[in-house]
Amino acid sequence: MKFFKLPTQIHKFDDFKGFAEEFKIGEGDLVLTHQFLYDPFMKELNLGADFLMQEKYGVGEPSDEMIDQILADVTAKQYKRIIAVGGGSVIDIAKLLIFKDGKNALDMFEKKIDFIKDKELIIVPTTCGTGSEVTNISIAEIKSKHTKMGLAIDELYADYAVLIPELVKGLPYKFFVYSSIDALIHAIESYVSPNANDFTQMISVKATEMILKGYLDIIEKGEDYRLEILEDFVIASNYAGIAFGNTGVGAVHALSYPLGGTYHVPHGEANYQFFTEVFKTYNRINPDGKIKELNTFLADLLKVEEKDVYDAIENVLDKLLSKKPLKEYGMKEEEIESFTDSVLEKQQRLLANNYVPLSREDILNIYKNLYYSKDSIEEVAATRK
């Protein structure tokens, strides 16, 4: 059985200029990025590459419609390398631009093409969350199916991942928090995955420690302190990506997809909604497996009793950004049932990585608990007696 794999070569630079010089970016390269990154970091370098701005094709996370428009433009010219400089959306799109016969997003996500890679892929992340620069996964909203889908094949591994903390400095506080929470979830879901091993757990622990200690420092010293420790978060995100790239993620991601796909909730924010509720459910079902080791580690790190670790994590995260009930996103009460069925129908790839199997009732109850605020749950219960 496969134990550990990392086919991507990882580089780190102080600035974009150093990266551009060493990698000789120029003719034959397509750089997919954003105008707000191009103007301060790339424009004055006068590189001979072609630059494509994601926002030209729409805003927000990638959809099949957006990807198809970009594919139509990109396939009109032959490129040797695709270079992604951006967050998860840019990276997910760029991964789909490397195939000889890639002309339709849905065909790729449904694996209806031969995945012949004819371009090199270089990924430069500009958030501290996805870890996608070292994974073989691309995710997009498939509008016709009203959900998100993931494609996981080894051809999607980047040839090079390049870490440049300078590029993360402009990330607004809110997006810093949501993206780094995503990395924290990657690390913790990876730790309890059935596919975890000594290598992945070692990396998961380090990523978790770096992120949570960073959060505690930010809470103590103020949100601007994050700018002094960005490199720690960029590296921790990379660690978490390496870990879950080998093990997969589970129910937190699976349950977040209908919310994200239907109400266009950003990926990290949607995952934040489900994180602790899923792990409280895991812990209730089987508190004596890998999750016990995790709880011991988290309790020591947060200086709380093991039984209180998930409440303690909620408290830390809430001090960074408050979590709101699912209904405040526009979710309807009847969608508790339909989202549950959507997860069971469309997200088995992720549910296979759960710490323990979740029944339909388990998933339904997670949605119910998160749909209402604590006060409104008590009110609803009282009216139904």
Give a quick set of tags describing it.
385 residues, alpha/beta, Rossmann fold, Dehydroquinate synthase-like, alpha domain, six-stranded parallel sheet, two-stranded antiparallel sheet, 8 strands, 11% strand
| Main beta-sheet annotation | 6 strands, parallel
Helix proportion of residues, in percent? Answer: 40-55%
| Beta fraction | 5-15%
Shape: globular
Class derived from helix and strand content:
alpha/beta
Order of helices and strands: EHEHEHEHHEEEEHHHHHHHHHHH
Low-confidence stretches: 380-385
InterPro entries: ADH_Fe/GldA (IPR001670), ADH_Fe_C (IPR056798), ADH_Fe_CS (IPR018211), Alcohol_dehydrogenase_Fe (IPR039697)
Domain Fe-containing alcohol dehydrogenase-like C-terminal: 177-371
GO molecular function: alcohol dehydrogenase (NAD+) activity; metal ion binding
Keywords: Oxidoreductase
List the helices and strands and how they pair.
Layout: E1 9-12, H1 16-22, E2 29-33, H2 35-41, E3 50-53, H3 64-74, E4 81-86, H4 88-94, H5 105-109, E5 120-125, E6 137-142, E7 147-152, E8 160-163, H6 173-192, H7 198-221, H8 230-247, H9 251-263, H10 267-285, H11 290-302, H12 309-320, H13 335-346, H14 348-351, H15 360-371, H16 374-383
Helix pairs in contact: 6-7, 6-8, 6-10, 7-8, 7-12, 9-10, 9-13, 10-12, 10-15, 13-15
What is the gist of this entry?
The protein has 385 residues and is of the alpha/beta class. It has helices spanning 16-22, 35-41, 64-74, 88-94, 105-109, 173-192, 198-221, 230-247, 251-263, 267-285, 290-302, 309-320, 335-346, 348-351, 360-371, 374-383, and strands spanning 9-12, 29-33, 50-53, 81-86, 120-125, 137-142, 147-152, 160-163.
